[in-house]
């Protein structure tokens, strides 16, 4: 996801082997032991930016060592602070990190989404200004696309940017911006021509969150605390040199960025998967009995409730079929085909599957999934265990996944039109 | 595991596509049906399939130095052929005789049995059928037919049903109980029996898909110990191996039919006009097609994974066989129902081919275990 820019020629297999050996040795020597386990909690995750904070000294060491190698952005050119690796080398780095269970040294949406777009559409000055700080994890970016009245119909957005000397004056508001209250900068879509057809009057603008006139307000969700915010812009002055792409051609830039976003969401979806085994939970909460003949081993047990057992099997099978399909898509891309490679298919399926799994968990836990800890504190709620409360919150959180990053219905529209070639009911859809 | 086809397998798939579309389009099935054909498939087509070498793909070239006519091409190749045959609803003994009969002999037979029986099977001269089912649902362990020990061997007594291509096969693989009682896995044995042996009565049962299946009555049929395939009493494991191959191969055929229904329905939505626009411009229909498209892509991945596991002789074959048969059965059912509904009035006429696919779908779904059977089996294999 780190911007597919190959700055090196293809290397021979022997050179790749050398590279693998070097990477392995470097990771062994430089990745602290405590960074070779999964992050157990949200405060274990390091977000790059001006307010970066480290829970432990190991977090800091790992962050700084990876940063100094340019490996926050392994495939970006070295002139912009990247690692300058070829895609093969970046693949080796990723696999070696996975082999040692190395954590991501930082999370940074700028790198995943804005970076590739700046590499493609940015001016030389914009690349030099914005990419190196991103590659060093010094600037935390957030995204300002959706507005209260522009959700699925994003192109109807109204936040306006009016030219004034060398600046724009920006007025309006954005919603569903993740971590806006903790970010240093925001990339936005603004209306620069109110007379034009709606897609043709939009521009892509970078804005410093410290600019006078910007305020943020966190949004509380059904699941409790959330990272989503509203952002209000009141006569905010933004230099015109922060325009990415041509004036009024922001929609093209945004469409490209949203492809990166769907990819990132599909990835985050994998990480956002419920950590609980449906089968283990069903055995625990619905009881089990001795398995019928032919089970994996002779003292095996099975879920006592036949209806739930069937539901769990169907979900596990869909999960397995989905993962096989991800793998097949990767193989097809490697072989030069892309018949199936639509991120919309994966985004739609994985988020809907996650919701179905969460509903099954709710049914399995019964009243034990109905406890509430207020969502805002870490205090355990009554007799409910931490796992039970986590299932409840996970279920509520799963509802967001098929809405953010383009709803399920929008993904199905994209599949129908782009993949199946079905005609549009009207031109604007 | 590799989930894509190599160049050789792709070439084979292209060859199969042209072959079936030219020699055995859906119209050929319609003709067999309307002429009340005795066999349930075209013997000329079967000869051509044998000449193309497709009946030998699962078998090695030699058994202990003796050539038997196999090519060792493997399951992904055969799966690609069966998938193409699904597009045209083509019936042939590839599944009943080659995959089931051939696998039983290859996996369970002694070297002598392999050398004696495989060459005629691969050359298509002798056709086999698996006599297993006895009730309304696929359930191998439920077999109640008895094989009572005699001085020289066994005496088979009981009834079989839904024996694919059973009325015309020259030889049968018969599953019977040498010990234990219905429902137990232990005590089953497989027998190689000539279909014209005294005491066997066979009746073809007309089926909705116009293919051939038979009811059979075994009235004190005498067989020798040499006719046992594999070990007496221990036939269940062999049977499951044979069935898993059948499950995966029929899933490949079903995937082809599902995709054909999808393609035909998609084309119809782009061409059929109502309210002055193509009906495919309606979002209510678009979302249904996008949903089933995604499901078919998932089903395809499960079939390729299962075929690949067979080629690698992986210990995940049983799990992947159940995954593929479950998923493809469910998606074929969904697609066949959607195809009828989205075609509207013409979808329920006999003139349109959609109904032929709908009927084949239900037969194929029940063959070797339906979706629900394989969900139960999957859960058991996973330890819950």
What does this 3D model show about the protein?
The complex is a heterodimer of chains A (429) and B (384). Chain A is of the alpha+beta class and 429 residues long. Chain A is built from eleven helices and ten strands. In chain A, a hairpin with a 2-residue loop joins strand 2 (160-164) and strand 3 (167-178). In chain A, helix 9 packs antiparallel against helix 11. With 384 residues, chain B is an alpha+beta fold. Chain B has eleven helices and twelve strands. Chain B has helices at 7-23, 26-34, 43-51, 75-87, 94-108, 111-122, 235-271, 283-311, 317-343, 354-366, 371-382; strands spanning 62-63, 66-67, 128-131, 146-149, 153-164, 171-177, 188-194, 200-204, 213-224, 228-229, 273-274, 277-278. In chain B, the strands form four sheets. Chain B has a four-stranded mixed beta sheet, with helices on one face. Chain B has a four-stranded antiparallel beta sheet with strand order 4-5-9-8, with no helix packed on it. Chain B has a two-stranded antiparallel sheet with strand order 1-2. The radius of gyration of chain B is 21 Å and the shape is globular. Chain B starts with 6 loop residues before the first helix and ends with a helix. The model of chain B has no long low-confidence stretch (mean pLDDT 97). Classes of the chains: A alpha+beta (429), B alpha+beta (384). At the A-B interface, helix 7, strand 10, helix 8, helix 9 and helix 11 of A face helix 7, strand 12, helix 8, helix 9 and helix 11 of B.
């Amino acid at each position: 996801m780190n911007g597919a820019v190959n700055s090196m020629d293809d290397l021979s297999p022997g050179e790749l082997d050398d590279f693998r050996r070097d990477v392995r040795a470097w990771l062994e020597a430089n990745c602290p032991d405590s960074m070779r386990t999964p992050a157990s909690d949200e405060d274990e995750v390091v977000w790059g930016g001006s307010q970066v904070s480290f829970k432990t000294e190991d977090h800091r060491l790992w962050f700084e060592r990876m940063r100094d190698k340019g490996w926050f952005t392994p495939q970006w050119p070295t002139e912009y602070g990247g690692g300058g690796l070829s895609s093969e080398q970046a693949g080796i780095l990723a696999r070696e990190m996975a082999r040692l269970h190395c954590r991501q040294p930082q999370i940074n949406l700028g790198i995943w989404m804005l970076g590739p777009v700046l590499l493609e559409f940015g001016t030389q000055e914009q690349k030099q200004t914005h990419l190196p700080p991103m590659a060093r994890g010094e600037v935390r970016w957030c995204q300002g696309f959706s507005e209260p009245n522009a959700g699925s119909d994003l192109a109807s957005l109204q936040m306006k940017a009016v030219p004034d000397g060398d600046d724009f004056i920006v007025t309006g508001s954005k919603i569903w911006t993740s971590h806006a209250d903790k970010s240093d900068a925001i990339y936005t879509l603004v209306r620069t021509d109110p007379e034009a057809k709606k897609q043709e009057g939009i521009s892509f603008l970078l804005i410093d969150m410290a600019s006078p006139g910007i305020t943020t307000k966190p949004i509380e969700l059904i699941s409790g605390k959330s990272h989503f915010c509203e952002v209000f812009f009141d006569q905010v002055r933004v230099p015109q040199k922060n325009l990415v792409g041509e004036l009024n051609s922001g929609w093209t830039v945004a469409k490209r960025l949203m492809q990166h976003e769907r990819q990132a969401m599909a990835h985050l979806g994998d990480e956002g998967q419920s950590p609980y085994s449906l089968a283990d939970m069903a055995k625990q909460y619905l009881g089990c009995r001795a398995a019928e003949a032919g089970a994996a081993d002779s003292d095996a047990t099975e879920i006592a409730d036949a209806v739930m057992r069937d539901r769990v099997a169907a979900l596990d099978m869909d999960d397995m079929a989905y993962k096989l399909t991800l793998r097949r898509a990767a193989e097809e891309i490697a072989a030069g085909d892309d018949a199936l490679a639509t991120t919309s298919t994966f985004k739609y399926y994985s988020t809907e599957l996650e919701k179905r799994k969460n509903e099954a968990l709710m049914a399995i836990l019964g009243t034990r999934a109905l406890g509430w800890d207020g969502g805002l504190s870490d205090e355990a709620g009554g007799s409910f265990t931490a796992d039970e409360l986590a299932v409840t919150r996970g279920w509520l959180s799963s509802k967001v996944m098929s809405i953010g990053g383009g709803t399920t219905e929008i993904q199905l529209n994209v599949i129908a039109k782009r993949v199946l070639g079905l005609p549009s009911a009207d031109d604007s859809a | 595991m590799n989930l894509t086809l190599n160049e050789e397998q792709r070439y084979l798939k292209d060859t199969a596509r042209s072959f079936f579309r030219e020699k055995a389009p859906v119209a050929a099935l319609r003709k067999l049906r309307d002429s009340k054909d005795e066999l349930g498939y075209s013997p000329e087509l079967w000869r051509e399939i044998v000449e193309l070498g497709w009946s030998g793909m699962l078998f090695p070239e030699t058994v202990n130095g003796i050539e038997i006519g196999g090519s060792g091409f493997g399951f992904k190749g055969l799966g690609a052929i069966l998938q193409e045959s699904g597009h045209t609803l083509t019936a042939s003994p590839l599944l009943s005789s080659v995959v089931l009969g051939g696998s039983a002999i290859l996996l369970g037979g002694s070297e002598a049995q392999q050398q004696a029986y495989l060459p005629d099977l691969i050359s298509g001269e002798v056709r086999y059928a698996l006599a297993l089912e006895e009730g309304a649902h696929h359930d191998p362990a439920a077999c109640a037919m008895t094989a009572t020990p005699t001085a020289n061997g066994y005496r088979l007594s009981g009834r079989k049903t839904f024996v694919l291509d059973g009325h015309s096969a020259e030889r049968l693989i018969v599953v019977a109980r040498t010990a234990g009682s219905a429902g137990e896995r232990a005590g089953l044995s497989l027998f190689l029996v000539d279909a014209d042996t005294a005491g066997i009565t066979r009746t073809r049962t007309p089926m909705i898909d116009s293919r051939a299946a038979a009811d059979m009555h075994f009235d004190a049929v005498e067989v020798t110990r040499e006719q046992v395939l594999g070990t007496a009493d221990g036939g269940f494991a062999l049977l499951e191996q044979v069935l898993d191959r059948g499950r995966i191969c029929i899933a490949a055929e079903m995937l082809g039919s599902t995709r054909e229904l999808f393609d035909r329905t998609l084309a119809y939505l782009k061409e059929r006009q109502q309210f002055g626009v193509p009906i495919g411009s309606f979002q209510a229909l678009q979302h249904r097609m996008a949903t089933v498209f995604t499901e078919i892509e998932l089903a395809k991945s499960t079939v390729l994974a299962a075929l690949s596991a067979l080629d690698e002789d992986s210990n995940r074959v049983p799990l992947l066989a159940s995954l593929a048969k479950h998923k493809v059965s469910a998606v074929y059912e969904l697609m066949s129902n959607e195809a009828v509904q989205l075609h509207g009035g013409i979808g329920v006429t006999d003139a349109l081919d959609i109904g032929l696919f709908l009927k084949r779908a239900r037969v194929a779904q029940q063959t070797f275990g339906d979706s629900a059977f394989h969900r139960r089996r999957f859960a058991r294999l996973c330890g819950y």
